[in-house]
Amino acid sequence: MTTSEKGYSFIEGQELYRQFVYMDDGHPCISFGHDLQYGESFPDGIDRPSAVLLLRKDLTTRFEPPLNLYLAHHGITLTQGQWDAWVDFSYNLGPFAGITMM
Length: 102
What we know:
It is a single chain. By secondary structure, the chain is α+β, with helices and mostly antiparallel strands. 54% of the residues lie in helices and 14% in strands. The chain is built from four helices and three strands. It has helices at residues 5-14, 48-74, 80-93, 97-100, and strands at 18-24, 27-31, 34-35. It has a three-stranded antiparallel β-sheet. Helix 1 (5-14) runs parallel beside helix 3 (80-93) and helix 2 packs across helix 3 (80-93). The two termini are 16 Å apart.
Protein backbone atom coordinates (compact mmCIF):
# COMPACT_ATOMS: atom_id res chain seq x y z
CA MET A 1 0.00 0.00 0.00
CA THR A 2 0.95 3.63 -0.29
CA THR A 3 -0.08 6.72 1.59
CA SER A 4 -3.07 8.55 0.13
CA GLU A 5 -3.20 12.24 -0.67
CA LYS A 6 -5.49 12.62 2.33
CA GLY A 7 -2.87 10.89 4.47
CA TYR A 8 -0.08 13.13 3.19
CA SER A 9 -2.20 16.22 3.82
CA PHE A 10 -3.00 15.05 7.34
CA ILE A 11 0.66 14.47 8.20
CA GLU A 12 1.71 17.80 6.67
CA GLY A 13 -0.99 19.51 8.74
CA GLN A 14 0.08 17.81 11.98
CA GLU A 15 3.81 18.32 11.62
CA LEU A 16 5.31 21.76 12.05
CA TYR A 17 7.19 23.00 8.98
CA ARG A 18 10.61 24.28 9.93
CA GLN A 19 12.73 26.02 7.32
CA PHE A 20 16.02 25.61 9.19
CA VAL A 21 17.70 22.79 11.08
CA TYR A 22 16.53 22.38 14.68
CA MET A 23 17.12 19.83 17.41
CA ASP A 24 14.34 17.35 18.22
CA ASP A 25 15.04 14.90 21.03
CA GLY A 26 18.77 15.34 20.46
CA HIS A 27 18.54 14.75 16.69
CA PRO A 28 19.03 17.46 14.06
CA CYS A 29 15.86 17.80 11.98
CA ILE A 30 14.42 20.02 9.27
CA SER A 31 11.26 20.32 7.20
CA PHE A 32 8.32 18.39 8.69
CA GLY A 33 10.42 16.44 11.19
CA HIS A 34 12.94 14.91 8.76
CA ASP A 35 15.85 13.43 10.73
CA LEU A 36 19.03 14.57 9.04
CA GLN A 37 20.96 11.60 7.71
CA TYR A 38 24.73 11.31 7.74
CA GLY A 39 26.18 13.79 5.25
CA GLU A 40 22.97 15.78 4.80
CA SER A 41 23.27 19.51 5.17
CA PHE A 42 20.84 22.36 4.67
CA PRO A 43 22.96 25.48 5.33
CA ASP A 44 20.42 27.72 3.55
CA GLY A 45 17.38 25.94 4.95
CA ILE A 46 14.62 24.33 2.89
CA ASP A 47 11.64 25.96 1.20
CA ARG A 48 8.15 24.59 1.81
CA PRO A 49 7.70 22.85 -1.59
CA SER A 50 11.03 21.06 -1.13
CA ALA A 51 10.06 20.18 2.45
CA VAL A 52 6.84 18.57 1.20
CA LEU A 53 8.83 16.52 -1.33
CA LEU A 54 11.28 15.47 1.39
CA LEU A 55 8.42 14.34 3.66
CA ARG A 56 6.88 12.30 0.85
CA LYS A 57 10.25 10.76 0.01
CA ASP A 58 10.78 9.81 3.67
CA LEU A 59 7.36 8.16 3.83
CA THR A 60 7.76 6.20 0.58
CA THR A 61 11.35 5.08 1.16
CA ARG A 62 11.75 4.71 4.93
CA PHE A 63 8.30 4.14 6.41
CA GLU A 64 6.05 2.41 3.89
CA PRO A 65 8.38 -0.49 2.90
CA PRO A 66 8.85 -2.00 6.38
CA LEU A 67 5.14 -1.65 7.12
CA ASN A 68 4.24 -3.33 3.81
CA LEU A 69 6.65 -6.20 4.54
CA TYR A 70 5.25 -6.70 8.02
CA LEU A 71 1.66 -6.70 6.82
CA ALA A 72 2.41 -9.11 3.95
CA HIS A 73 4.35 -11.46 6.25
CA HIS A 74 1.46 -11.62 8.72
CA GLY A 75 -1.35 -11.60 6.15
CA ILE A 76 -2.83 -8.39 7.54
CA THR A 77 -5.05 -6.22 5.38
CA LEU A 78 -5.70 -2.58 6.27
CA THR A 79 -8.15 -0.06 4.92
CA GLN A 80 -6.64 3.07 3.38
CA GLY A 81 -7.50 5.07 6.49
CA GLN A 82 -5.86 2.48 8.76
CA TRP A 83 -2.77 2.49 6.53
CA ASP A 84 -2.50 6.28 6.60
CA ALA A 85 -2.86 6.24 10.39
CA TRP A 86 -0.10 3.62 10.82
CA VAL A 87 2.22 5.55 8.50
CA ASP A 88 1.59 8.72 10.51
CA PHE A 89 2.11 6.82 13.78
CA SER A 90 5.35 5.31 12.47
CA TYR A 91 6.57 8.67 11.22
CA ASN A 92 6.18 10.08 14.71
CA LEU A 93 7.86 7.16 16.51
CA GLY A 94 10.28 5.79 13.91
CA PRO A 95 9.91 3.40 10.99
CA PHE A 96 10.05 0.20 13.04
CA ALA A 97 8.36 1.46 16.19
CA GLY A 98 4.98 1.53 14.45
CA ILE A 99 5.45 -2.09 13.44
CA THR A 100 6.41 -3.35 16.87
CA MET A 101 3.25 -1.75 18.26
CA MET A 102 0.99 -3.82 15.95
